Each structure stands twice: as structure tokens, then as C-alpha cells.
């Protein structure tokens, strides 16, 4: 019995659509676009555009690292071979896990929340909380099943879902833009941001960065990809290019479709459905609603595969018990890591929904967990990207190929923009969002404590192993 993942399973286009489906094409129509509009108003399309372009500075480091390192540890392995510091590198692994698990919790809750919103928008029916919770738990259950099977199943799902979603929402967005009388350039003027720079950068964090963060989902699939040292870097670029253009279009269609009535549309929590119903009627809206729900279900299902690989790699390195590094004898999937992620996600969903709905009622209690986890996990995404960016220079110095503009200035510029986004998104948060001020330092401390406790068992890779 082998304890290795199945090699050469993922093709180039499989990787591209894996990233696209994790990025969640229905997001700008129904979720991330909505949160961006809540905080920056009509400038949400600009937040998605600038946020996406910023990430092109950040993927310089990812692009270069993936030409040398193909490991299920992904980002934390990049840092590890560059600076060889167990606390910094393994903490990056924890940050990535928090990003994936938090995203799965958010995405699962959105499945239930969006059904609740959709039924209210379409027929005026308020779904009972117990059903919202049970429907939210469908996502981790499907993830558990799909995650245990071979990664080839996830690849097929990604390609089919990605093509269907993009084709549908591009067509719907173009149709809205043809119908609306409110097209214009004001949506790309940062001066029109609803809440100034704070609102604009918060929209970048809980909108654009949260949405686009899925491009990194394929970085941890290096051990299972065909020609990983060339295919992953290209797939990252292609997926991000497609999704920046796509997300900006869809969000623009939403704000331009609503025009001066954006505030009214946002009162329904689902402006995309509100506009579709107004412009095209009930039947088209039901189809859009169904596509969103299926998309929202499958995005975290696939993303969970990435989290399981990262957990598997950390267990293999001794950060977690070795039992979590077991590979299924038939499907060659990290099935024990899949089960562990499933358990944590289920607990997170139930605790978040029950506690916040009990405290705030259904309206805010269902929406607040999405924003809380959305902000906090995106902060960690930005943190590990900043760390990866700033470790690129010593990595290239070791390879005797340091180029100051490419390996220092450009990644640092991305890190500065991300740091500004973190600052503006964290200032002035009120309860219950202010719980983020506890969550973020707590996770950082937990990461360091676990590495310290396990320090005698922690295995470290060196750059020479990948030469």
C-alpha cells in the first residue's frame, strides 16, 4: 500500500477550472459582490478590478516558487525552503488551513442563507432556522464523499461546473446591461465609494480578495498534477485573468442594473435575484437561483480538497499526528485529513449559526457569520501572501538569480497594498464584527503554540531537496 497521493492526475485545464470553480463564479452575482456593494456601494466593480490587478503583483512569488517546488504543503513549503524557520513556515500552513476551513464554513452557511434569502425574495417565505442549518450541512457531507474519492472526480466536476456557471452569468449580465438605462463610468470612480476609503478597501477584502483567493487552491495540488513545475504557474495566471474580467463584468452588471435603486436592491440581500426578477421575470430568476445554489455547494466541496492536502502535508511533517497523513489504499486521497476537515467545518457551521441567530435574530444572525469569517479568513490570506512575497528575495538569492525589480520591488508593492487593505478593513469594526479582533491574534498564537509543542517532531525540507 502506498502512502503517496496519486501522481499526474490533474491536467492543465483541470487545474484552471479547479481554481475557477473554487473562486466561485456565482459569487459576484450573489455573495462576494453583495458584500462589496454593502461597503463601497456603486464602486464595487472598481474594488474587484483593483483587487484582481493587485494580485498579479502577488502571484509573481507564487509563479516563481511553483517552478521549483511541487508539494502538497504549497505556500508553507515555499517559505520553508526559503528561510528554513519552522515557526514562520508552519504558521503559514496554519493560516492557509484557517483560510480553507473558514471559507468552507462561510460557503456552507451561504447555501442555507441564500435559500432563505431566495425564498423571501421570490415568494415571501421565511425558512425556519433548523432547515437553514440542515441545508448548510449538505455542503460538508458532499465534500466528505467527493474528497475521499480520487482527485479525478473533483477535476471533472470543476470543468463541468465552471463552464456552465461562467456561460450562464456572462449571458445574464450582458442581458441586464442591454436592458438597464444606468450604464456609466461613475462605478469606476473611487471618490464615489459609499464609505470612503474604509468602505472601498473593506469591499476589496470581503469582496475581491475573498473571491479571488481561490486561485491559490491549486498550489497545494503539485504532487497530483501533470508537469506541475510548468502547469500550475500557467493555470494560476489563466484562472485569475479569466476571473478578474468575469467578476468585474458581473458586479458591474449588478450595480449598473440597479443604478440609483441599488439601496433598494441591497435590502433584499440578493440584488442579482432582485434585478433578474424585475428585468426577466420569475422563471429566469428561479433558474439563476438554482445555478447559484449548486455553484455555492460545489465551490467549497472542491476547495476542501486543497485544505485536506495542506493538512495531510503538515501531518506528514509532524505538525499534526501522523494518522492524518494516511492515504486511501484505493483512491490515493488523504482520507483521514478529509474527515478531520469535515468535522471542524460541521462544528463551525452549527456553532456560528446557532449562537448568532439566537443573539441577533435571523436577518443579521445569518448574514453576520458570513462577514465575520469572510473578513478574518481574507486577512489570513493576505498575511500568508505577504510572507510568501517577502521570502521570495532570499529564495532567489539562494538560487543566485536575484532581480531587485521583479523579486523585491513588485512583491513588496503588492504586500504594501495588502497591508493597507488589512488596515482599512479592520478599523472601526463594531460588535459582532469586532470579534475578529480576538479571532485573528488567537489563531496566530495557537499556530505558534502547536509548532512549539510539536517542535521535536517537526520535519523541515531544504531547497537542496528540490534541486
Topology:
Elements (H helix, E strand, L loop, with lengths): L11 H12 L3 H4 L1 H9 L3 H22 L9 H9 L2 H38 L5 H8 L1 H11 L2 H29 L16 H17 L15 H31 L3 H5 L4 H10 L1 H35 L18 H64 L5 H23 L9 H18 L14
Considering the chains and any ligands shown, give keywords for the structure:
single chain, 467 residues, mainly alpha, 0% strand
Describe the structure.
This protein is mostly helical. The protein has a single domain, classed as Amino acid/polyamine transporter I. Helices cover 74% and strands 0% of the residues. It contains 17 helices and no strands. α4 (44-65) packs across α10, α6 (86-123) packs across α15 and α8 crosses α14.
Provide a quick synopsis of the model.
With 467 residues, the protein is mainly alpha-helical. It contains 17 helices and no strands.
Give the C-level CATH assignment. Answer: Mainly Alpha
Order of helices and strands: HHHHHHHHHHHHHHHHH
According to CATH, the homologous superfamily is Amino acid/polyamine transporter I
CATH architecture: Up-down Bundle
CATH topology-level name: Amino acid/polyamine transporter I
Q: What is the mean predicted local confidence, pLDDT? A: 88
Ends distance? 28 Å
Shape, per Cα inertia axes: globular
Number of domains: 1
Total beta-strand segments = 0
Q: Would you tell me the structural class of the helices and strands?
A: mainly alpha
Uncertain runs with pLDDT below 50, 5 residues or more? none
- How many individual helices? 17
Helical coverage, percent range:
over 70%
The Cα radius of gyration reads: 21 Å
For the largest beta-sheet, the strand count, sense and barrel status come to: none
User: How much strand content do the residues show?
Assistant: under 5%
Amino acid at each position: 500500500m502506498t502512502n503517496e497521493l496519486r501522481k499526474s492526475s490533474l491536467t492543465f485545464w483541470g487545474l484552471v477550472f479547479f481554481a475557477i470553480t473554487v473562486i466561485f463564479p456565482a459569487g459576484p452575482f450573489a455573495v462576494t459582490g453583495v458584500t462589496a456593494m454593502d461597503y463601497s456601494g456603486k464602486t464595487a466593480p472598481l474594488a474587484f478590478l483593483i483587487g484582481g490587478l493587485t494580485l498579479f503583483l502577488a502571484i509573481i512569488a507564487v509563479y516563481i516558487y511553483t517552478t521549483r517546488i511541487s508539494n502538497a504543503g504549497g505556500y508553507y513549503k515555499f517559505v520553508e525552503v526559503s528561510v528554513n524557520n519552522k515557526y514562520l513556515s508552519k504558521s503559514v500552513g496554519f493560516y492557509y488551513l484557517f483560510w480553507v476551513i473558514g471559507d468552507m464554513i462561510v460557503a456552507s452557511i451561504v447555501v442555507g442563507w441564500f435559500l432563505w434569502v431566495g425564498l423571501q425574495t421570490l415568494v415571501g417565505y421565511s425558512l425556519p432556522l433548523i432547515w437553514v442549518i440542515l441545508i448548510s450541512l449538505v455542503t460538508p457531507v458532499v465534500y466528505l464523499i467527493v474528497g475521499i474519492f480520487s482527485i479525478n472526480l473533483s477535476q471533472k466536476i470543476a470543468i463541468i461546473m465552471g463552464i456552465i456557471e461562467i456561460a450562464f452569468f456572462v449571458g445574464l449580465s450582458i442581458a441586464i446591461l442591454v436592458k438597464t438605462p444606468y450604464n456609466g463610468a461613475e462605478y469606476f470612480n473611487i471618490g464615489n465609494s459609499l464609505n470612503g476609503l474604509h468602505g472601498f478597501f473593506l469591499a476589496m477584502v470581503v469582496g475581491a480578495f475573498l473571491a479571488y483567493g481561490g486561485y491559490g487552491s491549486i498550489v497545494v495540488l503539485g504532487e497530483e498534477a501533470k508537469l506541475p513545475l510548468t502547469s500550475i504557474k500557467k493555470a494560476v495566471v489563466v484562472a485569475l485573468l479569466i476571473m478578474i474580467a468575469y467578476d468585474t463584468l458581473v458586479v458591474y452588471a449588478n450595480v449598473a442594473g440597479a443604478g440609483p435603486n441599488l439601496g433598494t436592491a441591497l435590502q433584499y440581500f440578493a440584488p442579482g435575484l432582485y434585478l433578474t426578477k424585475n428585468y426577466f421575470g420569475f422563471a429566469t430568476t428561479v433558474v439563476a437561483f438554482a445555478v447559484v445554489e449548486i455553484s455555492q455547494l460545489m465551490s467549497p466541496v472542491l476547495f476542501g480538497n486543497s485544505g485536506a492536502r495542506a493538512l495531510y502535508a503538515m501531518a506528514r511533517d509532524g505538525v499534526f499526528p501522523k494518522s492524518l497523513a494516511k492515504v486511501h489504499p484505493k483512491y490515493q486521497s488523504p482520507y483521514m485529513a478529509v474527515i478531520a476537515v469535515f468535522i471542524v467545518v460541521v462544528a463551525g457551521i452549527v456553532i456560528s449559526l446557532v449562537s448568532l441567530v439566537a443573539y441577533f435574530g435571523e436577518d443579521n444572525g445569518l448574514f453576520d457569520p458570513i462577514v465575520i469569517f469572510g473578513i478574518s479568513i481574507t486577512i489570513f490570506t493576505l498575511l500568508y501572501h505577504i510572507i510568501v512575497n517577502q521570502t521570495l528575495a532570499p529564495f532567489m538569492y539562494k538560487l543566485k538569480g536575484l532581480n531587485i525589480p521583479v523579486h523585491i520591488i513588485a512583491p513588496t508593492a503588492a504586500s504594501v497594498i495588502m497591508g493597507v487593505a488589512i488596515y482599512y478593513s479592520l478599523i472601526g469594526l463594531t460588535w459582532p464584527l469586532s470579534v475578529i479582533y480576538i479571532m485573528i491574534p488567537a489563531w496566530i498564537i495557537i499556530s505558534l503554540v502547536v509548532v512549539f509543542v510539536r517542535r521535536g517532531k517537526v520535519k523541515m525540507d531544504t531547497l537542496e531537496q528540490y534541486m
